[in-house]
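Hi all, long-time lurker, first post. I run a small reading group and we've been trying to get comfortable going from sequence to structure in the token notation. Rather than ask abstract questions, I figured I'd post a concrete chain and ask someone more experienced to write out its structure so we can walk through it together at our next meeting. Sequence below, copied exactly:
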Amino acid sequence: MTGFLLDTNVISELTRPIPDSNVVAFLNNQPDLWLCTIVLHELDYGLNLLPEGQRRDNLTFAITALVANYEDRIIPLDRAAARAASDLRAKARAGGRVLHLGDALIAGTAASRALTVATRNTADFKGLGVPLANPWRAA
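-- Answer (accepted) --
Happy to help. Here is the structure in token form:
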């Protein structure tokens, strides 16, 4: 598998009234884009933190539509991704770094599938040996 695993912040950007033009261009120019179940968890968690109301309803609708668009490109957390994530977290800890579980699982999923993580938060993944791309930076 080749391509890009989209981090939560990329999907969140698409729910903004006017998404960053570099992000939109990046996504339009990439034929091989993937989501993982960890990103879906993070999106759902964010929605659950919002109070009931129009904003939450609008975001729920937007995220549901985006996720439906990726229906056949959602990677579940499997043994290979979990093992890769545990290796990354252990190496980070041995180096004195805290690697948050969500980031480790996203990086582990990317590593186990030979994908590049597309994220604005490249510092969260730096030094993990997983290729990174920042869609907010013009190509």
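A couple of things your group might point at:
Residues 54-69 form the longest helix (16 residues).
The CA atoms of residues 38 and 106 lie 7 Å apart.
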